[in-house]
Amino acid sequence: MADLDGFSSNKSRLYCLFNADMKNSIKVERAKKDLTQQDLAEKVQVSRQTINSIEAGKYVPSTVLALKIARVFEIALEEIFELEEGDYG
């Protein structure tokens, strides 16, 4: 039986999160601000491992987390995160 959001299990939900293809420039932006992964993690209230996974493209952040990251860097969200070609629709 499907959950209210249309997914039948947590595994399906996770697959959708990990299946999205998105590039990001977090590592570059961190270098510009002289921030470590730990520094950024503390500013956006997540673990260093989460930042590492986002940078590596293994995890697509929630909208709220992506907005927090953009705010730390003081740039538009679109300047940090970009969908891979062919993943627009």
Automatic annotation (TrEMBL):
Q: What is this protein called?
A: Putative transcriptional regulator
Keywords annotated in UniProt: DNA-binding
| Residues covered by the HTH cro/C1-type domain | 26-80
Source species of the chain: Algoriphagus alkaliphilus
InterPro entries cross-referenced by the UniProt entry: Cro/C1-type_HTH, Lambda_DNA-bd_dom_sf
Pfam families on file? HTH_3
Which terms does the record give in the GO molecular function aspect?
A: DNA binding
